[in-house]
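A brief tutorial aside. Many learners find it easier to grasp structure tokens once they have seen a single protein encoded end to end. The record that follows does exactly this for Amidase. Read the sequence first, then the structure, and try to relate runs of similar tokens to stretches of the chain.
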Amino acid sequence: MEWNYRSAEQLSAALRAGEVSSVELTEDAIAHIESDDKTINAICVPDFDRARDAAREADQARARGEDRPLLGIPLTVKESYNVAGLPTTWGMPQFADYVPTEDAVAVARVKAAGAVVLGKTNVPLMLKDWQSYNDIYGTTNNPWDRTRTPGGSSGGSSAALAAGFGALSLGSDLAGSLRTPAHFCGIYAHKPSFGLVATRGMVPPPVQALPSEGELAVAGPMARTARDLTLLLDVMAGPDPLTHGVAYNLALPPARHQELRDFRVLILEEHPVLPTGSAVRAALNRVTDALAADGARVERHSPLLPDLTEAATLYTQLMVSNVAASFPAQQYEQLRAAAAGLDADDQSRDAAWLRGTVFSHRDWIEANNLRERHRHGWRQLFAEFDAVICPITPTPAFPHNQGPNSWEQGIDIDGVEHPYGDQMVWAGVATMPGLPATAIPAGRTPEGLPVGVQLIGPMFEDRTPLRLAELLEQRIGGFEAPGS
């Protein structure tokens, strides 16, 4: 029987019923990877020997009567997570031999839940692209079209899931790094509320794994079904046991509604910074029609929506100020001189980017205070609506675009070139205020490429967009294997 495209939920049921063993599932997955990953290159660090050991241990545990949430389920982990005994490089050649000795918190949690880790998945250099390639592990291709990117930075994970290499994967997100790969590969991903999943051990080498939540970035689940996202999130979520976990226990509230007809949804189709491509617009309309057909309240405008242009600028500033903190002193001084030379009236996105790289602490505090006002605006909006549905990026997966000047070559939106970096503005709608966002498949282009949308929910009400994702999967369909 073919198990590689079954959901984790289905595999768990089969394991409990004795229809299959974890060893059989693991050997099936390994054989599938060895056969098909030659042209996809999703699994950059295989860990097959330890996976076989973990599968045997899972079968023995089940024989003793144990039953954990992920017991015996094969999955993969994004290369940027520390896994004891495996290299963590973030694609940087100088750290090709860096091997941590301790698992990241999220990795330790899935192992404790009984998961079988097949290996690690490919990423772009320093996780800074919507493509997944680097000089250590090469290029990961989209299983739907090998000439196109699977997304980034969790592109190896999305490609692995689309290709049937494990039922689940652990990813992360700062500028859409969970959601964009899901959109490009036709799978599901969830960017949790900021701080919901402890990120200790999801750090670049050789940075020490400390219990700090950093800025904007989150760790989250990827899967081929919406219900599997919830399954994996429940394992990953919770405060770091070294800090908030000393005093707090996680208690996520239930979804606001259980049926589509009860949801109140705001649809955002246009962003003031860049246009939405026709393929993505069609996917949004498909979701909108399904909601309306089931009696959901659907609106396309609201005066409660925080200013998206201001939000995009703020997101850029907060993100680049964090990134620039690791720049060498000489590079930082050059940027500071360039920012000082800007015209005071220059309010372009390029200017905002440059100013953000050299933010003072005072500047950052002012920006953070503005972020809190935006968060309050979102709280007011979510008193009127249960979810906001919008694009993830303006286009489906684009062709590989590698090289030192790839960011200068732009992105084609219906035949018109736009700045490559502006792809992140839709991701920032949820990232800047720290809101949860679930990426779902929403159809295919006439050429057969997957197209997804994101469901944004109220902060720390992650089960609301996840439940909406599950209901829409039932209504419009979900993951389809490439070539199906």
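Self-check: The first helix runs from residue 8 to 17. If you spotted this yourself, you are ready for the next section.
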